[in-house]
Amino acid sequence: MTADGAEPEARGVEEFGGDGSSAVDGKTAVIATDLSSASESMIESETGLGCLRRIGVDRLHLVTVVPANVHSGMPGMGFQKRRKEALRRYRSRVEDAGFSVETHVVRGTPHRRINGIAGSVGADLVMVGSRGKSPLENRVIGSTARNLARTTVVPLLVDRIERGVDDPGTIRRHLFRRTLFATDFSENAERAFRSFEYLRHATEEVTLVHVESSKDDTSGGDGPEARLADLAERLDDWGLDARTEVRRGDPADEILAAEADHDPSTLLLGSRGRSRLRRLLLGSVSEDVVARAAGNVFLVPPPRTA
């Protein structure tokens, strides 16, 4: 039993990437799963796992949460046993892909337990699947992905999964190949931009987008075009080519419109933290994008100490 109340099962493996090279950064990722067929497609995607290896992830914690109102002793119910067996199958597949793995079956509120495990293992990344956008999901704030977007203290990757099909797969198999970075030039956005220091190993194309709104202070300083050009130069130093675009209007609407225009693998943006007031505000740009985006979203929050 671990300090977070989980029941870990682990087997160590040698740390090799898909090309036989050792992982560079030794990063740890938590992958949350509800053990559905959609979630299985996320965990067993060889392309997705390869993307994680390329950005330096070599340790995975597979987590599934049993709802607090479900008890293993209920007639016909064997949730925890079945979940442990499913996680063993996932673990074997992921270890074969070159990762060291621990599995956790925990009970409680999903986003709280996922955040707790991420903190206890010192995770660099949390990954969760989402069935994509629908009018209902946009209104239901209790969804795990959206609650994680509101409360996560480590970078969160929302991996979009197909809806309404018998055998769902991930919508964007390559997690970071084509990245759209949305920036308001804030400290939070700069922190998200620095993620390219490791994402660049799995990235080929970058689109830099800034949305001007009526609330922007346009007095003095360089304009958004010049500031985006500076970011593009920094990406060039990392060996990445970038295009830039300034849009005008509502930030969330325009970011999603840019996603539709450029069809990136992943949207990258920063969030503004997890204060109590912020958790009550449902209209933040980052949460809106997580709820409505067609593809993957990589959300970078302030650091744990903030």
TrEMBL record:
InterPro entries in UniProt: Rossmann-like_a/b/a_fold, Universal_stress_UspA, UspA
Protein name, UniProt field: Universal stress protein
Report the source organism: Halorubrum trueperi
| Family under the similarity heading | Belongs to the universal stress protein A family.
In this chain the UspA domain maps to: 29-158, 176-301
Provide the residue span(s) of the region labelled Disordered. Answer: 1-21
TM region positions: none
Which branch of life, at top level? Answer: Archaea
Q: Which SUPFAM superfamilies match?
A: Adenine nucleotide alpha hydrolases-like (SSF52402)
